[in-house]
UniProtKB/TrEMBL annotation:
Keywords: Calcium, Disulfide bond, Glycoprotein, Secreted, Signal. It holds the Pfam family SPARC_Ca_bdg. One of its GO terms (cellular component) is extracellular space. Residues 181-294 form the SPARC/Testican calcium-binding domain. It is found in: Secreted. It comes from the Eukaryota. One of its GO terms (molecular function) is collagen binding. Residues 1-26 form the signal peptide. This is SPARC/Testican calcium-binding domain-containing protein.
Amino acid sequence: MAKFHVVRLGVALAVVLLAVAGRAHADELLDELLNEFDDDDEVLLRHIEAKHVSRDYELERELAARIAADHYAYGQAEEEDETPLEGRVPRLTDPCKGVRCGAGRVCSANVAEQRGECICIPECPAETDPRRKVCTNRNETWESACEVHRQRCMCNTRDPGCRHEELRHVHIDYYGTCREMPDCSENDLADFPRRMRDWLFNVMRDLASRNELPEAYMALEHEAETNMTKRWTNAAIWKWCELDGYPHDNTVSRHELFPIRAPLFALEHCIAPFLESCDPNRDHRISLQEWGKCLELEEDDLTARCAEISKEEELNKSSPQDAY
Ligand SMILES: *[C@@H]1O[C@H](CO)[C@@H](O)[C@H](O)[C@H]1NC(C)=O
Ligand SMILES: *[C@@H]1O[C@H](CO)[C@@H](O)[C@H](O)[C@H]1NC(C)=O
Ligand SMILES: *[C@@H]1O[C@H](CO)[C@@H](O)[C@H](O)[C@H]1NC(C)=O
């Protein structure tokens, strides 16, 4: 990035001016990334959210699903199992079996019609842990991701619980309470690719240890574990391939970066300028080569394999019903 070369000349005034300009530019890009949404972007984001709901959030949804089941007087199959009574209505298969709903929704069984419907989560689990708070694109702190998605669902279904028309488009900007972000210093930015590589590898390893890494990436992970020189490259390939899914077109758009941006933002104030550095030609798309370069990896290892993996993934792709 040219501006950082100039900074290295050590002209004090330039440092000040460029820091301001750099920040303004990064802010602009963030705005672009998060606020200038058209409908396609919104669809994309909903898919990403649906796929990348964290494990915690999955738990939240399970809890909420149970609450919903109570609300709608279905899901007593288990009780019947325990106390089989003669003359009871024969057990129905759960119409919600296999139905996946988007963020903020749960499946509700329509018993009469024997089908599952996605409805807004009736009630989010009470959150006492402040770490579960999220900051939205409106710079408002909410109790949990569930609350944000539930509210959005209500606003999209004309539910009287909708507090504001504009909340139809609310989404999570980053995890944690809304706050003032410190500036990203030149040193911090210089160190960022290393931290990012570390983070990617650790996430991949963690997923693998929990058996949550898709089968196709297990070989990459294993290789990364056993061969230090492949560690960062393979983690980078895995994440890039995973990000490039909406659509799968061999580039990662700025919007496709959302899943890594949100969790990192609260921890890493340099994420915005870093992502900007991943797109030096400003075409709003990041190729695998650009991704490798901004993570400071050797280019050689970065090709071919991703295509194979993504192709296999594509075959298995399933969209959640009613995702947005
Ligand atoms: C967002 O809210 C926080 C906390 O209220 C505040 O410190 C910060 O300046 C706000 N950010 C923006 C961009 O308005
Ligand atoms: C580790 O990976 C490097 C780079 O691809 C390769 O040259 C080397 O042979 C590998 N080492 C082992 C022990 O597999
Ligand atoms: C795709 O599905 C097949 C069969 O269900 C499975 O063997 C394969 O591992 C899956 N691939 C991925 C990438 O999940």
